[in-house]
Structures are given as structure tokens and as C-alpha cells.
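Q: Structure for this?
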Amino acid sequence: MKKNSVHTRQAWQKRLERQLRGAGAAWQKIRSLNAAGKKKILHWAAHDLENQARFLLQQNAHDLAQARKFNLSAAMIDRLTLTPARLKAMADGVRAVAALPDPIGKVLTAWKRPNGLRISKVTVPIGVVLIIFESRPNVTVECAALCIQSGNAAILRGGREAFYTNRAIAAIFQRALAKFKMPIEAVTFVETTEHAAVDFLLQREGEIHLVIPRGGQSLIRKVVALSRIPVIKHYQGICHVFVDRSADPVMAERIALNAKVQRPGVCNAMETLLVHEKIASRFLPQLALKLKAAGCEVRADSKAYALMRKSGGLVKKARPSDFGFEFLDKILAVKTVRDIAEAIEHIQRYGSAHTDAIVTRDRRQAEIFKAEVDSSSVMVNASTRFADGFEYGFGAEIGISTDKIHARGPMGLEGLTSYKYVVEGTGQIRR
Amino acid sequence: MKKNSVHTRQAWQKRLERQLRGAGAAWQKIRSLNAAGKKKILHWAAHDLENQARFLLQQNAHDLAQARKFNLSAAMIDRLTLTPARLKAMADGVRAVAALPDPIGKVLTAWKRPNGLRISKVTVPIGVVLIIFESRPNVTVECAALCIQSGNAAILRGGREAFYTNRAIAAIFQRALAKFKMPIEAVTFVETTEHAAVDFLLQREGEIHLVIPRGGQSLIRKVVALSRIPVIKHYQGICHVFVDRSADPVMAERIALNAKVQRPGVCNAMETLLVHEKIASRFLPQLALKLKAAGCEVRADSKAYALMRKSGGLVKKARPSDFGFEFLDKILAVKTVRDIAEAIEHIQRYGSAHTDAIVTRDRRQAEIFKAEVDSSSVMVNASTRFADGFEYGFGAEIGISTDKIHARGPMGLEGLTSYKYVVEGTGQIRR
């Protein structure tokens, strides 16, 4: 009852301290595990995700039974729900990670100094990685698998609405670790549901080496404000497509539609369409019809409004706040621009440096766009929806970073590594 | 008089906000400046550092006149003092940075996807970099030069004890920027000496993209605790040399002496010597004599004490707190170990993962050490003193990172870059 009493507080703090020590010690083991060893653990876990389906579905049912208590929306309940097919997909995901080349021990570059010292830069794991996430149990699976494959220890702090599911999934990985004589604490699950537990962990610099929050803006802002540990984070995806005057209108339409409506709720979906005024009248009326057919609302500047309103779709005049807004929905802001300079300026001012695209047939305009737009992904004649670790061929994705430090954009296994310099001499001393 | 009144506070805040806007706008210009443009600015600044020597020495004299007010030690006054020779060295440093290859626009890797998308990973500047440092005016020069060469805007916040010197140096770079039509705010000097100004800047996530504190532990801890912006930092250098049983005793002695006494006050100097017990009696008595000659105190475990105390040098019995301690002085902790495993365990437990070395003739022991020691620099048969951006051939050093995120170990121009993905298609959309 007295949840926040001093007594209870000390109990969970002690527990977390013990878990941190365990994760640190486990990391000292797993960081040197060879590729074959990591592969075996992941294959065992993948097998168990399917094999223990009954147990996992049972634990998932506990969470689902409580979903109303946590006021989960239908979409959230859907994401929380496990099915045999979803477990199979998760297991296949783990196998895909196991099939990736070992990211550790890679010589990134090597050189020799005039004094004879041979220096090489070799990849190493980062250490203990804290992942803080909301609902989705597949995050538990992905993060555990990616951390094991990169020789890191994972501390998983999921949302309480998926508590039983996440704990059961973590246990699958722990059993797989134990099976191959690795300490189970290499995948540590935080059972403490106290909010203060996160605050506590974010102060444990030295014991935790990286924090990856995966969830809504408010979670991420809170983590950034409190953490003494480096954080890699994803804020917003306010993505633009600029249709240049030289664009192929058919291509531009396909890309714009795909970027907006194929999956509007994700970070790499387009939020604002910028259209060169010289192509607007040939392009926008037709696009308006297609957007209408797709059930997409339009918020257009006055020039675009005049061209689009006759479509019969839901076309409104844009307010200033519609630009630079992350709708994450079937809503599109449309603006006409005089030239590429105005488009780039708009992107710099209103974008979030996530993903921005140009559609053009003019090589020079493409070059300007590629050079001037400072976004983590800059696309030419392709849908913004491709900004994704799997689409880039990384074989995995721990997240998409909107930071410029350490990892930027889609972040695969490489983002979970650091490096060390190995220096070999023959007795050299400094003069 | 009422320095902290609301009125004054608002004034400096407004000033900082204006400076932040200026730095952000300046970055939008300097980030796309080509290699030749950056080179011209740096050469002009280098020339002016020598040419404006009188003005700089005058400003430096202001600071020196106040040195007593700030209780500066003799060493600090020495570091603060400019001379024509030091200005020449600074100018040469700037020319050396200008001679480095442009770190921006480099294609790190490029590949093609099965759907025809061509992806390349291209280096870009980070943005606005805040450097917070104490006393040393040469930091002003180095940071301004490195930021310009890497297309970043620098916000420099130096210690008040070097205020006039730093401001004058910043003005040199600003004039060079203006000379070549670049906004002078690409090198912004914070004139506000209020302590609260730093706290304020560390909250300006989005406007400042990276913070590099250069100074003592307390400065760095404060920055880490307050900052919402990613910080790259240097904590401690508790460096070890392990003398293996198979070591060449002559080489081991040279390396140990060099690592300890060549410059004991720096982070890559050795603090603890670990000696395999099978070589101790052949190695330590002789080393003790050399350490005595060099004026170095020894704090030895009981076995080493017995072997070293007859040297006539200052040899004490070590207390537990002597291990894992950063003396930054002519004091050396010495410990004998049973085997390489004990040495590595000691390094993991007491070290700071900065730089650790083994001296050995046994290839296998070297391999074990290289693989197992997780330090930013791992040395074989070389002095720890080589862990340095210049010694590694980077041509410059913005600092040494004890982080594992973004940059680790000696950090040159590359550490001031991020990257973006450039994706070129022919109309691809996501299925």
C-alpha cells in the first residue's frame, strides 16, 4: 500500500543495484564471446520463442486482461497482442540477426607511423545498454537479439502494460544464455514498475554506457533531461517531398502517394509536400484526386488550394501551424515554392532533419538538394518511406537516430559498437 | 553592482539567445564551404596570430595583471602567458589543421540495393559545437581552427582568468571569417562571465549539437549533470603498464620510465605498474634505482616493496587507495601479479579504460591482452604516452574521449563530423 515508503524504495533500489552489478559482470563475459557462440544462443532463443508459444501466449493473456486498466487504445492492444504467427515472425527476426556478420573485432582501419608503431582501430561492444520502451513486445525481442549479437549486455525496461509478456520473452533469452554457459544477466529485465526506477537508472553513469529510449516524445524528453548517460534518441520525423519543375509528374505522384499514405503513422512518412510553382498546375489537380481516393485530407497554401479544392476531397486552407507538424495520419500539408532555394529553406526551417526527398529529372537540382539538405536521409527520386534499417540492408534496426552524435538515421548493429585503438610497437618511447 | 538582479539576468540571457541564433545561421553558411574556402580563412587567421602579436600580448597582459585576483598557481600563469614564440607555435598549429584533408563530403561507404536504390554514407559537419574550457588560450585557437576546418560553428566559453586573451584570439578568427565573406558568428565568443550562462547554454538542445568540456573533473561532472545536449568528455586516465614474465627487462624499464616520468601530469602517463611475479626480482630492483634517479616516489605492494626498498629511493608500502588513483605526479603504484589474468582483472577493476600497455616477448600473451583489455588504447611494447591525436597521425586533437559513444580515445577532425545517407532512385516506392 505504502508504495513510496522509504522501506519499499530501498528494496527496489537494492534490487536495481544488484541487477546493475550482474549486468556489468555479464558484459565482461559476453563481450568476448565469438561469433559462433553468439549465433548458437540466438538460434536457441529463436527456437524457444516458437517452442514456448503456449507459455508466452499465456503471459500475454495476463497483460491483455489488464489492458482496460491501462486505458490502452485498440491500436495499442493490437501491438501488444501475441499470436503464433507473430511469435514465428519474431523468431525469424532473431534468426536474421544471428545471420548477420559479427560486428565485433572488425579492423576498421590500420596504419603504420614513421616511428614504426602499427595502429589499428578495432570494433568493440559498447557495454551495458539500457533500453526504455513502451508496450511493444517485439522491441524486447529485437533489442535482446541485437545486444547479444553485438556483445553488449541489455537492460530492458518495458512498459507496465506489457509486463508479463516482456518478462517471459526476456526469460527465453536468459535460458538461451544459460544453455551456453553465459551469465543470464546479459539480458536483464527490470521488474520494478516504479517510475522512479528509470530516474535512478539514468544516474548510473559508469555502470550503464548507453541509453536508448523508444517511445513517445514525452518519454524521450524526460530521459534526455534526467540522464547523465549518453542517450541516442528519435524525436520527430517531419519529412518533406519536393517536386521540382522538371519532375516526371507520374513518378512524382507515385512517390508522393507512397510517402504519405502507404503507412502514415510512421516517422518516415511525408508530412509536407513542396511543389515548384511551375509544375503545380500540371501536378496538383491530379494528385488531389488520388489523395481523395486514399482518404487523405489536404491542408494547402492558397495557390495549391486553388488547384486542389475542385477534387471533391477534403481540402482545407493551411494554417501556419500545419507546416512543420508531424501529423502521423492521413493529413498532408502542401505548399508551392518559387524555386529549389525556397524549398530547401522551408525544409531547414520546418523539417526535423530526418528524411527529405526531391523528385526531379534535372541532375543539377538533385546535386544542389543532396548537398544543401542536412537531413539524416536525403532522397532523390525515391519515397521517404525507404529510410529504414531493413530497407538500407542493415538486416536489423535498433532504432532511427535523429541525433548527429554516434549514430544518425537508421541504426543497425554498427550503432551498438564502439572501437579501440590497438598499438603495437617494438619498445618505442615518447621523446 | 546588482549582478544577479532580474534585469541583468535578462540582459545576458537575451545576449546569449542572440548569439545562439547567430551561430546557427553562421553554421548554415560554413557547413557548405569548400575545402579551399576553409583553408583561406585558416591561413589568414594564422597570419594574423603572428601579425597582431602586439595586440594579443597587450590583451594577455590584462589577464596576467589579474592573475593574483583569481589565485592562479605558477603553472596556470605559465599556461596563460603568451609570448611571440607561443603565438608562432599557435599559428603553425592552425596551418597544420588547414593542411589536413577536408573531413566533409567524404563518402564513407556506398552500396546498391536489390531494388536499384543507390545509397551512400557521406560525412557532414555536426553543427554548433559548444566548447567549455579553463585558462589555456591555445584551446581557443585549436578549437576555432578545428571547427572551421570541419564546417562546424564554434561557441567558445573560456575561463574568466583568460577572458581578454581568449576574446582577442576569437576576434582574429572572426576577422578572418569576415575577410572571406563568412559570418563571423561561426566563431562565437561568450562574453558573459556569469556561471549561470553555462547552465543556460547546456539546456539549448536543438541549437547546440555537441558539448565538449575541457578541464578538470568537477567542470566535466557539472556539465554532464546539467546538459541536455550530447557531451563528449574526458574523465580520468588511470593507465597501467603490465610487465609480463617474458618481457625484455631493458625494454620494460625504458617503457615504464617513459610512461611514468617523461610527463607525469598528463592523462596518458602511467599510474600503476603491474609486474609478473616471475620477473619481479630481475626487474624491480633496477627500476627502483632509475625511479629514484628520476625523483619518482614508489608505492609498492609487499612483494614489490621488499624488492625495491633497498634502492634508497622514496619507496612506501602501498595503501589500497593507491591503486586506481590518478596521481598526475611523480608517484607510481606498483603491484606484482601471479599471471596475465590477474593483471587484466586489476586493469578492469581499477583502470579507467583510457590506455593500458603490456610489455612482452610472448606473442600469445600479447594477443590475450589485446583482446581482453577494453581500453580506448591498448598498447603492446610501447609507452602509454603515445595515446595522443598527434602521435596517432591525426594531425590535430580536439580532445581525448573516455566515452565509448561517437568518439573514443584521441579525437581529431573525424570526431567533429557526422554523416548522412544519400539515397538515389529512379522512382522507387515502398511496397
